[in-house]
Design brief:
Length: about 280
């Protein structure tokens, strides 16, 4: 016992439950678990949409994947470009269908023809190669670019026309039957990283470059200079036409831009929803 000026101070007995400092220890209220409605009642339309997809297939590539391209016709084969090879998969069975590894350096932009009977590929060596899908043999080899070819495309209207965009800043149009370059477009001042053919006009192409511009080319007038130049405001990684052919989309930096080509190249919308560079 301890004595204070006001009288004796009595300490609580720790053996007595609920006494003094130990009051409330061991006394608790059970937490009731929160109950939710059955899953069938709280499922949303968006949830049903995503659940309709089958389990994804995981494909291990040998290195960084630089390009993916689906064929337009059934069974919609998928071309995966990675390192010095292009692997083609059957999108239905998800199994490997063909492998192309006849490249001396890194391959870029493996693109299947719409009927999936041929494939064109660019590369670090500056060579554009056209392959037969059945025999895997090289049908054509175009070698006039002096630097890496990052983007190649078939013309949407003709199997006999191919376009390529290169780090040598040029865009070239190739005649497959003749095996030669029929048009060289100059105008970009930095790497040309993308090219896309107009969906309805066979002679019109669009290209994007690291010089921050999108340029339109028309082969009908015989000129090698651009017919229209659009300022994207950042290095352009990719360009794509909408099916009508009146609108063009460019991506690069953190922006996706929609252009009204028929309206003189007017910028309709600039979308910024990404934190890092948009690649395609």
């Amino acid at each position: 016992m301890t004595t204070t000026m006001d009288g004796p101070l009595v300490l609580p007995d720790p053996k007595v439950k609920g006494a003094g400092l130990y009051a409330g220890i061991g006394d608790y209220v059970k937490v009731q678990p929160k109950r939710y409605a059955p899953k069938t009642l709280r499922e949303t339309a968006e949830g049903r949409y995503w659940r309709a997809y089958k389990a994804p297939a995981l494909i291990n590539a040998v290195s960084q994947v630089t390009s993916l391209h689906f064929a337009e016709t059934y069974p919609h084969q998928l071309a995966v470009t990675s390192s010095a090879r292009v692997t083609v998969y059957n999108s239905q069975s998800r199994k490997q269908h063909r492998m192309f590894a006849r490249f001396k350096d890194i391959a870029y932009s493996g693109v299947l023809r719409s009927d999936a009977r041929a494939m064109v590929v660019g590369g670090q060596a500056g060579v554009v190669q056209l392959f037969d899908m059945n025999s895997r043999s090289i049908l054509r080899k175009f070698e006039m670019h002096t630097r890496a070819v990052r983007s190649v495309k078939f013309s949407p209207q003709s199997y006999a026309t191919i376009a390529s965009a290169s780090d040598d800043t040029t865009v070239r149009i190739w005649d497959v039957a003749a095996g030669e370059c029929v048009r060289r477009h100059d105008g970009h001042t930095d790497y040309a990283r993308s090219v896309a053919g107009h969906p309805t006009a066979q002679t019109t192409w669009a290209s994007g470059s690291y010089d921050h511009t999108v340029r339109l080319w028309d082969n009908r007038d015989g000129s090698t200079s651009a017919t229209m130049t659009l300022d994207h405001g950042a290095p352009v990684e990719d360009v794509a036409w909408l099916p009508s052919g009146s609108l063009l989309v460019s991506v690069g930096g953190q922006d996706a831009c929609v252009w009204d080509v028929l309206g003189g190249g007017r910028l309709l919308r600039r979308l910024r929803c990404h934190q890092k560079t948009i690649m395609s």
